[in-house]
């Protein structure tokens, strides 16, 4: 009989192997479920994709863990580190469709994720950035100026000390609150993604490359993204997203362009480098309205003045988020009536929302037209009954003509 010490060591080893096996099984189940959601249960049966549901399912059924073992390599499309944690997900051009699963945030050890050139729809999961905490919403307006202030870099305080080995364990535990804090490369280009860029992604402090071009993203780039100082020059692409508009933090303009000329460089070399950087910037924002005023900026500003003047006990106006289009096709603001042809604000239906307060006089500006196309116009509907409001009829400047019709 083995000595008691050796028996204890063997028992601990067996328990460790059993725990590792359980983690591998849970991780395998998570990956197969995610790929099934994206590719469909029949996606791999044709054999046309290197990464497919059937190959992963077969590997799991044979008992091969996602990161392989002494006799088998990792599953197709996965990269692992020495600790057998998943650090890379390469799923470009693999026939993926449907929405991006928020549960990918459970793979917290990921360093690289490539989902480019698929047919993925839906929105970008905010949970990948972890909790919003005290972060503000997207940029407060759609003006075209470039901010010269740089937000404090958070790379030293979030995600840097976790270590890649936590990926599989976190996947097994099911927790997704931490987000993909170690992610260095993210490529979701060439899909059909909609909606806005999540404010919470400003917490992806390790991000060095972000490819978002050739989608259908809208809104402004969140001011909080100015903290992503790890983005390398020329490694942020936002082009071919016709709904993106507005200003960019200075750190992001550097990430969009090539490296700036070195101080003290020869005049000719500096001029050539500056020209190359300008060309790179133009290419990076081509097909967007970035660095230009958002068409809906004035309407959004006036509506936010209204919002700030009211008490919203029920949170009925929670969708009125700075930096987003009130008439967005994917997430229109609650109570805002839009002209379907022009996609501009045509009225307000705030009836029965339990709002209280005094309507601001600036509401009149929405009835008299804005300074530019799509930035104001004539309100054709104003429904306010069922609230505790003042100024709707008698308040100075509140529109009662010019096309406005108050209905109660």
UniProtKB/TrEMBL annotation:
Pfam families assigned to the protein according to its UniProt record, in alphabetical order: LRR_1, LRRNT_2
InterPro entries (alphabetical): DNA_repair-toleration (IPR053211), Leu-rich_rpt (IPR001611), LRR_dom_sf (IPR032675), LRR_N_plant-typ (IPR013210)
Record-level Gene Ontology MF annotations: kinase activity
Subcellular localization: Cytoplasm, Cytoskeleton, Cilium axoneme
Gene3D superfamilies in the record: Ribonuclease Inhibitor
Stretches the record annotates as Disordered: 143-170, 388-408
Bias (Low complexity) ranges: 143-159
GO cellular component entries: axoneme
Limits of the Leucine-rich repeat-containing N-terminal plant-type domain: 54-81, 302-339
UniProt keyword list: Kinase, Leucine-rich repeat, Receptor, Signal, Transferase
Signal peptide, first to last residue: 1-22
Predominant place of localization: cytoplasm
Name of the protein described by the UniProt record: Receptor protein kinase CLAVATA1
Organism of provenance: Tetrabaena socialis
Lineage per the UniProt record: Eukaryota, Viridiplantae, Chlorophyta, core chlorophytes, Chlorophyceae
């Amino acid at each position: 009989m083995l000595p008691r010490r050796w028996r204890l060591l063997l028992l601990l080893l067996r328990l460790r192997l059993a725990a590792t096996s359980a983690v591998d099984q849970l991780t395998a189940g998570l990956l197969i479920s995610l790929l099934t959601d994206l590719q469909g249960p029949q996606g791999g049966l044709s054999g046309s994709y290197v990464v497919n549901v059937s190959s992963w399912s077969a590997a799991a059924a044979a008992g091969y863990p996602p990161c392989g073992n002494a006799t088998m390599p990792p599953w197709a499309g996965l990269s692992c580190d020495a600790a057998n944690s998943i650090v890379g997900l390469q799923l470009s051009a693999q026939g993926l469709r449907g929405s991006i699963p928020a549960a990918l945030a459970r793979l917290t050890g990921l360093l690289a994720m490539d989902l480019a050139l698929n047919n993925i729809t839906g929105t970008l999961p905010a949970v990948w950035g972890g909790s919003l905490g005290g972060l503000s919403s997207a940029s407060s307006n759609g003006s075209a100026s470039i901010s010269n202030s740089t937000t404090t870099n958070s790379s030293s305080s979030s995600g840097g000390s976790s270590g890649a080995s936590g990926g599989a364990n976190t996947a097994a535990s099911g927790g997704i609150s931490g987000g993909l804090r170690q992610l260095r490369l993210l490529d979701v280009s060439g899909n059909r993604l909609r909606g806005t860029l999540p404010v919470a992604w400003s917490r992806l402090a390790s991000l060095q490359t972000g490819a978002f071009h050739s989608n259908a993203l809208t809104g402004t780039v969140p001011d909080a993204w100015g903290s992503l100082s790890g983005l390398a020059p020329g490694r942020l692409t936002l082009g071919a997203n016709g709904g993106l508009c507005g200003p960019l933090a200075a750190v992001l303009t550097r990430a969009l362009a090539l490296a700036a000329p070195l101080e003290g460089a020869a005049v000719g070399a500096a001029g050539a480098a500056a020209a190359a950087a300008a060309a790179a910037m133009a290419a990076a924002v081509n097909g967007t309205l970035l660095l230009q005023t958002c068409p809906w900026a004035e309407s959004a500003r006036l509506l936010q003045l209204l919002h700030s003047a009211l008490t919203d006990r029920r949170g009925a106006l929670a969708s009125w988020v700075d930096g987003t289009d009130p008439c967005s096709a994917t997430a229109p603001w609650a109570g805002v009536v839009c002209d379907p042809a022009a996609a501009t604000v045509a009225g307000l239906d705030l009836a029965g929302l339990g709002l209280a307060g005094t309507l601001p006089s600036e509401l009149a500006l929405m009835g008299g037209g804005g300074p530019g196309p799509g930035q104001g116009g004539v309100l054709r509907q104003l429904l306010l009954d069922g609230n505790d409001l003042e100024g709707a009829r008698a308040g100075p400047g509140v529109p009662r003509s010019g096309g406005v019709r108050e209905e109660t």
